[in-house]
Specification:
2 copies of one chain form a homodimer.
Chain A lengths: L7 E8 L1 H4 L7 H11 L2 E9 L3 H14 L2 E5 L10 H9 L3 E3 L1 H11 L7 H4 L3 E3 L3 E3 L8 E4 L2 E4 L3 H11 L10 E7 L7 H10 L4 E9 L2 E10 L2 H17 L5 E2 L3
Parallel strand pairs in A: 1-2, 1-3, 3-8
Antiparallel strand pairs in A: 4-5, 6-7, 7-8, 9-11, 9-12, 10-11
Chain lengths: 253, 253
């Protein structure tokens, strides 16, 4: 057994009318979730809110208080609908200031791209007391203030900012997982899954059904921070499925 | 000008550890958002929560109180990790009961599929006082209780439940939109966008930058419930972009 260690949690706020209208399909939830898992941090909750100051302030203050880390994506560009920095500064109770290093980065980036206009300078504005998160794509940096990490909405830029943060945040034991696929209706094995989970302390089993080529199947995902318990639970589930003449397919279907 | 009409709002709760772990990429946010737009209902906020009773209860009670409609996806299958019905009944302060019509539907569906086991009967359980939402794919129905709509997590099944609800919910004037693409850095037109939005009451302009084939562009989405204002705002923005020798590309890039 692994020594029980503290569980580190994070929340994510996806900011943007374009997600709530259905126009843009969010890619940041899965990206941030996967990255956090590797850092040993659990994504506990996500909220998608509009480009609306009150909505952002409410979400920021609720989620930063009850998680180790809070990430946001979206709303940090140069246009009038980019209100994330102002809203988060309001939530934190601090002023918005131009960060000198961000200003210097943007001056360099825009030197041969038409110069640093007032609109572009907006991207150097941060809640007072913030540090920067490098962005190797477009100059404009992300922002860290305490346990709040403010990132871009464009997934490729978000990805670069996450890379810059890799290994920088304290996490706990990563949640390990095994996936087993099976051509079975999940309702046939519902009792088995529940019993197997109960018999293996610290393991959770998720069941995800699908229909493919006219056939019914399910993937079972077993999760634990303890590699030995995880392996034992996985072996037990495979054996029980075999006993039902429903062969388990390691890695999932 | 359209007579100002009441704005109808909805919230969505996506329930499931598989979304928060990054394993499954959510497709229901965009699907529900688009469907709501057609019904004349605005998706105001989304929360993704774990398969955890307390988290579901908190989200349900906050969001159903401040929106006309609340939708949930996920957690209504037959396995031990499907706790949505119990959690929502707790939030509503009602008991969980077997719905006779749901039981009859499932008996029919499973008649030639091995019979209605206890696990399968779980899918006939509803918060007391609920009505059913038909599901033409797998028998197991969705559930409506007051302004709360409980739907499946598998996107194809969610889609069928939304179809069954189409035209059933009272909405307001649909939010109309026009999209204009332009090969321009959004920072070059930031002031223009802000001025144009201010000059056209009831219009919002969103700016969504991208980088493609080494070139920088942006799509501008103009939204309004008033078709005339929308058209006037769109024409004004196109004319101003032309004046900058940045031709607008109707429909977006």
């Amino acid at each position: 057994m692994v020594e029980s260690s503290r569980i580190y949690t994070a929340a994510l706020i996806v900011i943007g009318d374009e997600i709530l209208s259905g126009r843009t399909h969010d890619k940041n939830i899965a990206q941030v979730a996967t990255w956090l898992g590797i850092q040993g941090i659990r994504l506990k909750e996500v909220r998608v809110v509009a480009d609306d100051t009150a909505a952002i302030v409410e979400a920021v203050n609720t989620l930063r208080a009850r998680n180790d880390y809070l990430f946001t994506t979206g709303g940090i560009g140069p246009t009038h609908d980019d209100i994330t920095v102002d809203a988060i500064a309001e939530a934190l109770g601090v002023a918005v200031v131009v960060h000198p290093e961000a200003r210097a980065i943007l001056e360099g980036y825009y030197q041969e791209r038409g110069g640093l206009t007032d609109a572009r300078l907006r991207m150097a504005r941060v809640p007072d007391g913030a540090d920067l998160i490098p962005n190797r794509y477009t100059g404009a940096p992300g922002i860290r203030h305490g346990n709040v990490f403010i990132m871009a909405g464009v997934p490729a830029i978000t990805s670069g900012m996450l890379d810059a943060l890799s290994g920088q945040l304290e996490g706990g034991a990563p949640l390990l997982s095994e996936t087993i696929g099976c051509w079975v209706q999940e309702s046939e094995v519902a009792d088995l899954l529940g019993r197997t989970e109960q018999a293996h302390a610290g393991c959770q089993i998720g069941s995800y059904p699908f229909w493919r080529d006219g056939k019914t199947g399910a993937n079972f995902v077993i999760r634990s921070v303890d590699a030995e318990e995880l392996a034992a639970c996985t072996r037990a589930l495979i054996a029980d499925l075999e006993a039902m003449e429903r062969p388990a397919i390691p890695g999932g279907i």
